[in-house]
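Appendix B. One record, verbatim.
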Amino acid sequence: MDSGLWGTIFGILAYTAWGVLPLYWKLLDSIPALEILAHRVFWSFLFLSLIILLSKQLTSLRIACKNKTNTFYTFLSAIIISINWFTFIWAVTSGRVVEASMGYYINPLIVVLLGTVVLKEQLNTMQKIAIVFASVGVIIMTLQYGGIPWVAITLALSFACYGLIKKTVDISSLNGLTLETAITAPIALAYILYLHFNGTSSLDVIPLPTMLTLFASGIATAIPLLLFAQAAKNIKFSTMGFMQYIAPSLSLAIGVFLFHEPFTKAHLLGFGFIWVALIIYSLSQISIKKPTHNILEEKI
């Protein structure tokens, strides 16, 4: 199986996991979003560190830390993904799953834009048509919202920038994510301890099942991100953008059918345009393989 196919599989698994994560965060809606974020970061770091030790990759992690470029971009990505995590957790626990899903509908357009402008990826005619359909769908959903959807915009911009960094930085998925959480884990732990000594920690009042769910947030966070980072290194950035519609579609369905958030005709129309775009883009990926010598000539 070639790397492109593996990348596609990893991407689908990552976005499917993110699509159903609102169900997980809803279990923690009695806990403030910032406290959930602190636990999410800290337990992710412990989980990833354990993987590093068990897989005997500590040496490669040390080597990665010596690269100043990697360190800088990893620090930047840590800040960006923390903003994304907090915004999403706050949206879910505040009953704004539909608006959060809108952010991830907007995100693929930004990803495709970054892919063509920054990474110089080329789009064929069908892919350009798909972008037009997706843009119309997003515009309909944005107009229906009736104001500036700050949650959606923050989620879209932060995750697009995070994905671009993961695409361009030369560091393994595991090492990169471990470094990201290592950067923010001390801050997270300090906040957890502050809440404890201040007598305002949710750990003092929540039942044991909720506490265990909170602790397991590190696993729920790390696994999709590892899959995403691996996918980003093996498939086109613009392709990942359109693949991302899996997550908000699942989140939207959860928000409407399980959490009973509003779903209007405008939502349905926008949703329809986006899925037509996804079908067109998927069809554009189906092509007859070129002869081997042509592929080599292109690479040269």
